[in-house]
Amino acid sequence: MEGGGERDHEAEPEYHCHDFEWEDLRADVEANPSFSHHLSPFPTTAASPSPSSEAWRSFHRRHASGRFFKERRYLLKEFPDLLNNNDVAKMLEVGCGNGSTVVPILRCSRNNIVYACDCSKDTLEKANEIVNNTEGLDGKDRFHPFLLDVSKETFPDWLFCKSCQMSNAKAVDLLLDSSEHNTRKEHPVLLKENQCCVGGIDAVTMIFTLSAIPFNLMSITIQRCVSVLKPGGLVLFRDYGLYDMTMLRFSPSQRVGFREYMRADGTFSYFFTLDTMRELFHAAGLLELELEYCCVRSINRKNGKSMQRVWVHGKFQKPTR
């Protein structure tokens, strides 16, 4: 799905985390009458918007060129857990899009294995192509994309530790359906009696994914992600923060819920506060390790305008007991 994050960037800024204080931005926004439509209560009787899976599929079909790809190398600075592993580490990237998060994870350690899901076959195919063609990246046997809309579907059984206890042989195709996709053709993996399955996930990455899902589906989405984590496993989160520049650009007619907006192409965007994130992840039984706003100021190279970006950074852990 890959909610974007950088899709609205008009410049390639030098990356910082705390260029300004979020509370100062909040005061400026809430004192500005032109932004009043973002602050007013949203009618509770309003009909909830429908899930946007098809809108995201269309979005990725329109942006299938390599120019849309931007490797998110800054994530390795923000989440050093992706680097500090000497053993084989199994990662799950939820809403992988074209692989902009997958590539740096695979690149940073040869011990990282990435299972990646998305609701779009087209974008999975593109991600597979990018991973296979990235120079210096040996990801052929370490990248396993599969089709799934996490807001509507549960993860396949082979991604759970409980699969180890199955007595019947089970065919699992970790890749795209070879009858429809020709980028990689391999035999399915057979999980036989006494043979270990994937065995649980060490870390789930959710990078600009949750904001692309209607708010009423977020809790169940997080619970599904937690269900495949090993005890002690991590959820690494980054997404839009309240009063981000992108939010302030939306018109009143694009507001479809409390802090929830719909773009002209039908894709969603929700803007998080720290309290909202804390409530969602605590409700899923996770422990909070890190949670903060990342406030980044960048300059548009074309028009010289300053852009104030706000993202929420979070790291949560599944209890060991």
Describe the protein in words.
One of its GO terms (biological process) is methylation. GO terms for molecular function: RNA methyltransferase activity; S-adenosylmethionine-dependent methyltransferase activity. Its EC number is 2.1.1.-. By secondary structure, the protein is an alpha/beta fold. The protein has a single domain, classed as 3-Layer(aba) Sandwich (Rossmann fold). Helices cover 23% and strands 24% of the residues. The chain is built from nine helices and twelve strands. The protein has a seven-stranded mixed β-sheet. A three-stranded antiparallel β-sheet has the order 8-9-10, with no helix packed on it. A two-stranded antiparallel ribbon has the order 4-5. The longest helix has 13 residues. The radius of gyration is 20 Å and the shape is globular. The two termini are 32 Å apart. About 13% of the residues have low confidence.
Question: How are the SSEs placed, and which strands pair?
Answer:
Blueprint: H1 22-30, H2 36-39, H3 53-62, H4 74-78, E1 89-94, H5 102-108, E2 112-118, H6 121-133, E3 143-147, E4 170-172, E5 189-191, E6 201-207, H7 218-227, E7 229-240, H8 245-249, E8 255-257, E9 260-262, E10 268-270, H9 274-283, E11 287-299, E12 306-317
Parallel strand pairs: 1-2, 1-6, 2-3, 6-7
Antiparallel strand pairs: 4-5, 7-12, 8-9, 9-10, 11-12
